[in-house]
Every structure is written in C-alpha cells, then in structure tokens.
Amino acid sequence: MFDKVLIANRGEIALRIHRACREMGIKTVAVHSTADEQAMHVRLADESVCIGPPPARDSYLNMPAIVSAAMITGADAIHPGYGFLSENAKFAEIVEEHGLTFIGPSPEHIRMMGDKVEAKKAMRAVKVPCVPGTEDAVTDVEAAKAIAEEIGYPVLIKAAGGGGGKGMKVANASSELADMMALAKREALANFGNDAVYMEKYLSHPRHIELQILADTHGNVVHLGERDCSLQRRHQKVLEEAPSPALNAKERKRLGDIGCAAIKQLGYRNAGTLEFLYQDGEFYFIEMNTRLQVEHPITEAISDIDIVREMIRIASGAPLSFRQDDVKFMGHAIECRINAESATTFKPSPGTVTEYHAPGGLGVRVDSALYAGYRVPPHYDSLVAKLIVHASTRNECLMRLRRALEEFVIGGIETTIPLHARLVAEQDFINGDYDIRWLERFAAKGA
Predict the structure, then answer these.
(1) Among 66, 85, 265, 329, which residue has the least CB neighbours within 10 Å?
(2) CA gap 188, 194 in Å, rounded
C-alpha cells in the first residue's frame, strides 16, 4: 500500500480523496494555486505545495509543477480526482515515467476512451450497442448528407475529442447540415484543439444512464449499478439518482452484464463509467469516463462501497475487496450539485461565504470544502457542494431531500439550492418521468 498520495485537484473532491487516504493510514500532499491557499484540503493535508497562480493552466494543469511536487514530498502516487488532468493520457504517462503510480486507468485506455470515435469503435468490437452513426470522423459535407439520409434526420454532430456539450449541434434537415457541421467543427477546434467531428442519430426523448465499473489487475470486474443523470442543463448534470426510476430488474441486469463483459475484454483497470442513452427499452453507448465521477457518492450510498478506497487499492496492486455477488443494493439515493451561481440566470457568484450550515441527520451526506469566511474564487468550476441523500425508498428519499434542502444555508453568495428545491417539488420529477431535455424545458418556462 502507498505511504503518501499527492492529490492533484482542489475543492470538495480533493477533500474527499484526502479523507479516504487518512482512513487507510495514508499521508496526503495537497497542491494548490495562490487563490486556494486557505482551502480546506490544504489545511487538512499532511503537506501542501503551491504550484502556481490562480489560472488553472498555470497551476492545476501544470504537469511539471505537479510531478515536481510529488517528487520533492516523496509521494508514491498521484490521484487526479475529476476534471483538470484526470483524463489526460500524457499526464498519466509522465507520472509513471517518474516512478510514481497514477491512481486511475492506463494511459492507453484514457487515450482510447478520450476520443469518442475510437471509443465507439472499441465498444462495437466488444459487442456493446451504440447509437447508429459514423465509425470515423466526418470531414466531407456530401458524405455527411448521405450518412444522414441513411440513419435518418434529425442527426447529432459531435466533437470527437471533447464533451460537455461543446462542439455539439443538431441538424433537423439536409438544408441545415452544412451550417451545423461548420459550427460544430469551429467549436471543437476552439475548445479541444481538434476539429474532428462525427455524426449519430439524434434520439428524441432518451434518458442518460451510466454504469459504474471497477476492475483490478487480477482480472476481476464488477459493476456497482447504474445512475440516472438525465437532469441536465446545457449537457451539464444538475441532479443524479441511483438506481434509475426508469429501469426494471431485467434491464438493470442486462446493462450490468453488457458493461462488465466489455470492460473485461478491453483489459481495463481501476474505476470507470460507461455512459448510455436509454430509449424505448434499448441502451446505446455514448462515451466512457476514465475517472472518478462527480456523482459517485450516490453509488456509494446504495452499495456501501467506498469507490475512492477501491481505486487506491487497485492502483497499489491489490485485488478488489469484494465480488459481484457481494454487492447488495440498498434503497435509493439522490445527489444535488450545488453551484455558486444564480438559481435563475445561472450567472456565476464567486465571493466570501458569510454563513455556512450543512444539513444533517440520518441518510444525509454533504461533500463540500466550504466554511464560513472562505472566499469562493472566480477562476474555477462553480461546484461548491454536493448534497447526497439516501433512504430505503425513492419516496422517502425525496421527503428527506426536501428537508435537507430547507436546512442547507450558504450565505454571502448565490447558489442553486433554490433551483433544487423547485425541481424536487415538480410532479414530473416526483413521478420519475423525465428525460435529458426535461430540465431545459423546465427552465424555459421560467419556473
């Protein structure tokens, strides 16, 4: 097992990893920008190293500074968390070249799954169903039109090298295809340095279902069930729940079997999440995230398995501490992503936290690095807390979630807590009757 782990991240996820390490008897090293000098993970870590000024490119994306910090502090391994360098194959390679362990999958699998075209090729090769579309990047408009006629309009044009809704455009007819393709390519180049795009069938009312996977270096692969991440705004997840209210036991088993078989054939290691669109009883693979997910706590809640702990154990060479038959799902869990932004306009709201009171009680967990007096910097993602609620049934979970949202106090900045309070009171959500476009329609109504 490792003696010391450097956490190459910030905020709530850095604190989450620190806690897992401490419970395993592992010392931690926090890295931070000058803007995060007073951050909670910096205060609690055994050691801390400043790696640069506030802009992420000069600090949390500064590979030489992070690796140097690991070397001078004598760390054995680096955990990248999510975002920043977590899915950067070059960073994983550099970490390993310096005799350190990257707590995550191999650089080869990160690279494979980071390119959505290559990811789909790999998944098709191991018999995973994909949305009908192109297997290679599309460069010629006329060829694209022929493909679109074959798979049927509307079609979705997507950046091959990115995500988050950037470089993604819908063409409803042949007359729109050239313009939408040009827009998608420009956005892809601007955001990812790669203008390659591919095309697939646009599904009208899908749900976004993802499967949590863990795989060790001894050939063991397990899944920890699915999460429903359909409540999204501009392709960014807002609220997630597990299990999905849309699936029955037979569909749930089918998804788990598909995912585990694919991961085993690919020889993947560590944690990963297979993401699918689900419509009319069919699953369609869209991408794989080769890292820890923001929403991993709801899976931990229903499975009672510490995913971060297992990631660290796997990276150290240990086998999984359980088998698939040992995984027993219990109850229902929902996570609300609390962002420092307006609940109506979604304008970012950095600033000093004047009051902070986290809800508590049975089945309530808050992952946050906030405290009264902390200044939320304007330089990074606006996620400042995650409220995770667990109960024996979905209805009980909803009641507990409403109570927890009422208790949650974050003063001095605007947050999306009021948005979540409105969402969980909506009848469609109460009924579990929503898809990936529901939240956009809800927001458009000015609710």
Answers:
(1) 265
(2) 6
Active site residues: 291
Query: Residue 295 in contact with residue 240, Cβ under 8 Å?
Result: yes
Per the listing, tokens 């994909």 go with 130
More confident residue, 241 or 440: 241
Residue for token digits 């507990």? 400
Q: Which domains does the chain have, with CATH numbers?
A: 4-103 (3.40.50.20), 132-201 (3.30.1490.20), 207-444 (3.30.470.20)
pTM over 0.70: yes
In tens, the pLDDT along 173-217 reads 999 999 999 999 999 998 888 999 999 999 989 999 999 999 999
Kindly tell me if the per-residue pLDDT of 164 is higher than 70.
Answer: no
Q: Report how far residue 292's alpha carbon sits from residue 272's, in angstroms, rounded to the nearest whole number.
A: 7
pLDDT > 90: percent of the chain: 90
Contacts of 37 (CB under 8 A, 6+ apart): 50
Q: Which helix (H) or strand (E) holds 156?
A: strand 155-159
Return the axis-axis angle of helices 89-97 and 63-73, rounded to nearest 10°. 30
Length of the chain in residues, anyone? 447
Question: Quick check: 447 pLDDT over 60?
Answer: no
The amino acid present at 22, given as its one-letter code, is R
What span, in angstroms and rounded, lies between the C-alpha atoms of 388 and 339?
A: 14
**Nearest alpha-carbon partner for 101 in 345, 315, 352:** 315
